[in-house]
Amino acid sequence: MRRGSNDWESDMAYLTFWQRMKLPTYLDAREITTGMVEFDRDRCTLCGICARCCPVGSIVVPTTRGEVPHVASGGPDIYLCFACGNCVAACPHHAATLKRRYTTHTYYNRLCRAPEMTYPRRY
Amino acid sequence: MTVGSDQGTQGCPPLGTYQEGMDWNPVENVIFHRRSIRSYRKDPLPPGVIRRILEAGRFAPSAGNSQPWLFVVITSPEIIAQMERDALRVVRTFMFLMDYTRSWFRRTFVVHFTKLMTRIFPRLLHPVPFAAMMQMARGEVPVFFEAPAMIVLLKDRRGAADPSLGVGIAGQNMVIAAHSLGVGTCWIGFVRLLCWSRNWFKWKRRLGIGYPYELAEAIVLGWPTERRHGQSPREVLEVPWLEHGADDAPRLERLGE
Ligand SMILES: Cc1cc2nc3c(=O)[nH]c(=O)nc-3n(C[C@H](O)[C@H](O)[C@H](O)COP(=O)(O)O)c2cc1C
Ligand code: SF4
Ligand code: SF4
What we know:
The complex is a heterodimer.
Chain A (H helix, E strand, L loop, with lengths): L6 H7 L3 H5 L10 E2 L2 E4 L9 H5 L5 E2 L9 E2 L1 E3 L2 E2 L6 H5 L5 E5 L2 E2 L19
Antiparallel strand pairs in A: 1-8, 2-7, 3-4, 5-6
Chain B lengths: L25 H8 L13 H12 L10 E6 L2 H22 L5 H17 L6 H11 L11 E8 L6 H18 L3 E5 L11 H8 L5 E10 L14 E5 L9 E5 L2
Antiparallel strand pairs in B: 1-2, 2-4, 3-4, 5-6
The complex binds flavin mononucleotide and iron/sulfur cluster (SF4) (2 copies).
The site of one iron/sulfur cluster has 17 residues of chain A, from helix 4.
């Protein structure tokens, strides 16, 4: 059965032999695309709920007004976020938005069948 | 003939008739709004609620109805704190040996050792649990989230077919039941860190692990600090439908798009 009828699939859904051999690290953004969350300055009240539900505890909530929370970073374009969407779901003021999904480019399975993840749909 | 306790009642009638695009029914609502909860109120869960949740696990389906599970309930804050301490100690040791992100030296040299270990334990050292362990070692995130209760799931190796699957199904039954009662839960795969703890033999004895029972997973439960039931997105799923002749190519449908 051939899958890969469009760009993301043929590019992403299956790994070549070398991709299956190469272990990704958190040092190189070419090997791993981490999640990315954006916080809305106008909506965020710095309540800290998002930080308390992050599975990797990586949201840093500032104490001074006017700033916004940010996700801990491990290097250029690397965030300690795996795009679970928990903070987005939890924020009572809809201030957090998931900007990017987590995907490893080598070795491990990829979540990459569409440019964006989607919410439950009422079929 | 023996009769079930539902004898004389309707059993479980459908929760509605399917119409395209209709609203979620109560069961679907729980499924789609369930989130892993990671901050709990301190007050204990009433034992009745825990029993009610366990009952949902007892009635999970399993291969050959072999029911290859055992549930251990822990509500002692002291024991949960000890488990936290032991698991954290293991994480700190692991990360002392394997966290390759901390310094120039580690980025250059330790990374190779980490990669070797990742070849040996590819799923345990998957980048996501690895990142979680880095954060745990830095004290940014706890292992058991200071929950007031925990259900440890043991797997009976003598079960039919694939006992791990049965444990997963029983666990998710309990999680769904819990959320329908307003109880928050989170699966804790990291409970298996205890296997590397120097107190492992103590935990084996405490939890009743030993042939035929293996430590499989744990679920922590408690009242959530705040209502947290937003939805989160998931990957679009590509589903092949085989609906025509035996030799026809399947139709790929993108679910959720
Ligand atoms: C078998 C299993 C083990 C898990 N182990 C952990 C864990 O150790 N720590 C944790 O914070 N979350 C754990 N989770 C929760 C997942 O991170 C979570 O389900 C996933 O991010 C999706 O988020 P949601 O449950 O809020 O939808 C586990 C989930 C499963 C199914
Ligand atoms: S939960 Fe929302 S409002 Fe609260 S700190 Fe996080 S982003 Fe800001
Ligand atoms: S999406 Fe998940 S991992 Fe990423 S910052 Fe939010 S809660 Fe943390």
